[in-house]
Specification:
By secondary structure, the protein is of the alpha+beta class. It has one domain: Pnp Oxidase, Chain A, CATH 2.30.110.10. The chain has six helices and seven strands. The chain has a seven-stranded antiparallel sheet with strand order 2-1-5-6-7-4-3. A hairpin with a 2-residue loop joins strand 3 and strand 4.
């Protein structure tokens, strides 16, 4: 990913925050010279070492690239939105797009241990739907999960390299950047509100 110095995320805590807040990622691998991509919810299992976990359908042939050796990439897309030149205090300017993106690189390996796979499924449900055990306990029954597990492949990636980019007008003057941030803060669009908070350091 091309990252000018003004847009580079150097703070690892901000990287972790963006992954936690934007867990629906794209996993990209190469198998037999062909690229494959799958969009998946991903959990940040640990930060030291950094491990990312997920699962996909066994019918999805991408899992055959999970050899624990070949480099793969996970892309986490954060808030994004159009920036009109009319938002700046100065002029002229060109239209642009503000966004946050995290790329994580490492080898992906299959998790075969049944108990670890079950624990992963329980964690991912707990993360995204913590009240489900109370609302619909039959949908969180471990035996129900075990019956479904042959149809999935669980995996984990130990992250070897991270790239973080926050294109949030950091290459502009303070007055221009503040004008865009204030516009975002008054928006009704969730992504723009989130970008405004990032730009204002909130």
């Amino acid at each position: 990913m091309y990252i000018p110095n003004a847009h580079k995320i150097d703070d690892p805590e901000l990287v972790f925050q963006q992954i936690l807040e934007n867990p629906f990622a794209m996993l990209v691998t190469t198998l037999d010279g062909h690229m494959e991509a799958t969009h998946l919810p991903i959990l940040l299992e640990s930060t030291s070492p950094m491990i990312l976990c997920g699962h996909l359908a066994r019918q999805n042939k991408q899992w055959r690239a999970f050899d624990g050796l070949s480099e793969a990439m996970m892309v986490f897309s954060g808030p994004h939105g159009y920036v009109s030149p009319s938002l700046y205090v100065t002029s002229p300017n060109v239209p642009t797009w503000n966004y946050v993106a995290i790329h994580a690189y490492g080898a992906v390996e299959v998790v075969n241990d049944e108990e670890l796979v079950l624990a992963h499924l329980q964690r991912i449900v707990s993360y995204f739907d913590p009240s489900l055990p109370e609302k619909q306990p039959e949908s969180t029954d471990p035996n129900y999960y075990r019956r479904l597990m042959p149809g999935i492949v669980a995996f984990q990636m130990k992250v070897e390299r991270l790239e973080g980019k926050a294109k949030l007008n950091r290459n502009k003057s303070d007055e221009d950047r503040l004008a865009v941030a204030e516009h975002y803060s008054k928006s009704t669009i969730e992504d723009e509100i989130r970008m405004g908070k990032l730009m204002l350091g909130e």
